[in-house]
Amino acid sequence: MEILLKDSNDMVNLSDRVFNEILDINLTHQVVNSYFINKRQGCSVQKSRSLVSGSNRKPWKQKGTGRARSGSVKSPLWRSGGVTFASKYLNYYSKINRKVYNKVLKGVLSYLVQNSRLHIFSEFNVESYKTKLLLKKLNSFNLTESLIVVTKINRFLFLSSRNLYKVNICHVNHIKLVDLINYKNTIFTLDSIRFIEGKLK
Questions:
Q1: Apex CA 131: angle with CA 126 and CA 133, to 5°?
Q2: Closest CA to 105 of 26, 196, 187
Q3: What is the DSSP code (8-state) at residue 5?
Q4: Which single residue of 51, 65, 105, 133 has CA 20 to 30 Å from 165?
Q5: Which residues pair with 188 in a beta bridge?
């Protein structure tokens, strides 16, 4: 498979093993769901009567005081006592096998190529931290809403993109499948494409 470099007239050969995969909707749905499930913290915790600090001694004798019977100061009926049916820390971690994730990643990359949403540059840098320079460059290629994937994050590129809501800079090692799907365009440098091909072969 060949694709044209955006900043020159050269053609780039892409590996069919990576960029010619059929997108499996069911597996993609599973991987995306797993991503959002793993973002849940599950850290809402309350103390039950067994976790509340205090004595287990009976406050007063069972009969003869005229007061209601009581067995513990940690009872949920008492002030500062334990919580009935207290919530506990929950682990929402959902595991996705590496082979499944790689298959889905190949499918998404192939889908982006087939729908002209993946663009390759030999290099992608700006000469200053000015946001308007990056915006001007993106506008010249009609790529205003883009995820930019690079092997080395240039300082100027990072600073110039911070104020752009629909532009994000990403290192090739930290690509998120959800970002590839959400962004209208994805920009890869030639080095990052070769890195992906080597990783997914």
A1: 45
A2: 196
A3: B
A4: 105
A5: 120, 149
From its phi and psi, is residue 54 left (phi > 0), alpha (psi between -120 and 50) or beta?
left
> Backbone dihedral region of 85: left (phi > 0), alpha (psi from -120 to 50 degrees) or beta?
left
What is the four-CA torsion angle of 8, 11, 17, 23, rounded to 10 degrees? 60
What is the separation, in whole angstroms, between the first and last Cα of the chain?
15
Q: Shortest CA distance to 143 belongs to which of 163, 177, 116?
A: 116
Which residue, chain included where needed, has tokens 């190529």?
A: 113
Question: Hey, what are 129's tokens?
Answer: 């931290």
pLDDT above 90 (res 7) = no
pLDDT band at 167 (very low <50, low <70, confident <90, very high): very high
Q: Residues for the chain: how many in total? A: 201
d(CA 148, CA 111): 17
Q: Where are the beta strands (DSSP E) in 151-198?
A: 167-171, 185-189
Question: Does the reported pTM lie above 0.85?
Answer: no
CB half-sphere exposure, 3, CA atoms < 13 A: 25
Grade residue 151 by pLDDT with cuts at 50, 70 and 90: very high
The answer to whether 16 touches 110, Cβ cutoff 8 Å, is no
